[in-house]
């Protein structure tokens, strides 16, 4: 192992990274004041974490229309470090029905706390503070639940037929809520479907939830399912309910439908010939984990692309982002090793294509590993091989520009498209792009990502240095579904962008955990959407267990 490679790995704690507890956080608000006398607020909560003195958005809830006391179905999963003070900030906004943007939304209040406070109390309730730290009459409640270790996800698809009509001039606008019954007999909202307007036979969108959230890993735990008729004033009409278990839902795994009668208890008592208020149908129940695909032989094909544009600075200057110190790895190497060390365990041949972009090279220079404009493509032997190739090529390149990444995405997508035609879970592609600046071919990049979302492929972009990466967030899909310049939406969310500076002084291997956290779900999502099951026979290779 080379000194620079070993230094980068040790700096990131890859050989002795600690195990972490994962915690699920759920949010409820009470008594939100009406800013508009003519309508109720449309609340949405942003969760932020403090890093190096700055608040960074982690995620946000769904928007609930016309509600002063919303219970959000969105679940936030975070890593809990006992030895660290992890500061959280919850911001409540009223988002107009005309748009979903936070910039134009009304700020209703915020609450700050630590993750340790939530975990120790399990249910933390605090008032929201308005601008100027004025205490409002609104409250926010955050509930914490530790993941039990069962991180398998289940994909469920519900519909209904012949629901009761609760509207005079039109048909009901039904939505379904699923609650888990806890050991203390309280109910925990697991999922709320979208509303299907003017339809007594709704087909709700397929959704995915963890078994931990659905039933705490207990297949016999009771689930209360309620059907409502949505009203714009927030006072939804009760249609009926039924009780189920995940054990019953598993009956839909073999292609059969599972059905429940939707019952209104009041009608059951008052009406002599009452049968039900409709039938709720589970059309599909899929449950394949990431490990099912990996142990079934699916290989992770890892590709690296490195930014060699002039904005990085002269590599011979110690201020350059590409400066090669004999013992201290630069940010490019730290990010490369952090992510690559994880991925290489799931690639049997461990030969990684490595690309470069933005540089000028002499006509007679044969770049054997890190290649510009894909003129010479060979695999590097492991992450150490990529590091050595980077160090060898760097002195011979003239850093130039621009920062165009669409050609690289298209190159990897070309390989992924060949895999798609096999109709088997054999290879999934991960492209790691390391760059110091804002992308200059944004339109082409958006188009390339939208096309790649149909393929077995994920893209990780790490921003190196101190540039303003705010425009890069749109590629991550955090502000809504990414669309091509022509308006075509991404089929799946396949991009994860993070600035390296957020992890410069963070916990060991925190960067790798953050950027790779979504990959297992992205792998499962792709193959589930294609109806491709894992192979039953385990592949003959070993997985390192930390």
Automatic annotation (TrEMBL):
It comes from the Eukaryota. Residues 6-128, 134-261 form the C2 domain. Gene3D superfamilies: C2 domain. GO terms for biological process: cellular response to calcium ion. The keyword Endoplasmic reticulum does not apply. GO terms for cellular component: plasma membrane. CDD domains: C2A_Copine (cd04048), C2B_Copine (cd04047). Coiled coil: none annotated. The keyword Repeat applies. Keywords: Repeat. It holds the Pfam family C2. One of its GO terms (molecular function) is calcium-dependent phospholipid binding. PANTHER family: COPINE, COPINE-4. Belongs to the copine family. This is Copine IVa. It comes from Salmo trutta.
